[in-house]
Amino acid sequence: MKRLLLLVLLLTGCQDQVLSRDVHCDQPGILESARVENENGLAHRFTIYLPPCYADEPQRLYPAIYLFPGRSGGPSDSFNAGVAELADNLILSGEISPLILIGLDNTDNDMQGENFLLRVLPYIEANYRVLAERQHRALAGASQGGAPAYRLALQHPDMFASAALFGSGAIAGEEQQIQIWLDAIPASQQPSFFFNTGFADPYMLERAQIFTAILDGWGVDYESVFTDGDHSYTYWVANFKEYLAWLAKD
Fold this sequence. Notes:
The structure is a single chain. This protein is α/β, with parallel strands linked by helices and 250 residues long. Helix content is 34%, strand content 20%. An eight-stranded mixed beta sheet has the order 1-2-4-3-5-6-7-8. The radius of gyration is 17 Å and the shape is globular. 43% of the residues are buried.
């Protein structure tokens, strides 16, 4: 089975859209906070990480990872745990190619991720230099944020090529629906999945293992990292490097 091609296109330089890096970068990326308002004036916040040399390479386009926080969380949760510093270190050392990270608002009242899909995603793709094809869009959710991540990937496989679940798994009672979604996906658009849950997080570990068992039955590609750890961003960010390496595999 083929793994997701998200970062590897940047590594190989095979796409006309992806330019080779000819600017030396030694400064870290930057974080920006913004908001998108809907027709009722409700704001949907996000925090965006722009990689080193983003301003110096105005023609370059980047893959993007969209980060859903857990219950009552916010756009900065992953960044507060050090994910921007991790990305800086990997990009500046040449271990990965540059990418954009977008921390989203919580989906407590929008567990299907519709506000992200209809408002935030179009805004980001209109205002930042992100690659808009499915193979360059990745969804990642922490805890409760894993639900909209996998729901969007399964219901819109033409738009998203993967979903990562950190401290998360199949919502109880949704197992049959997950299989219905999988059955409806064309083989050419089957998304891939990444799971990271700690042994000290038993309920979420069980839900993740239930999800992977479903994927086994459908022959869906996934990677699972179940190790010593708890239900915290500190643990999940510690495994984010492995997640990025998985994204870059063919």
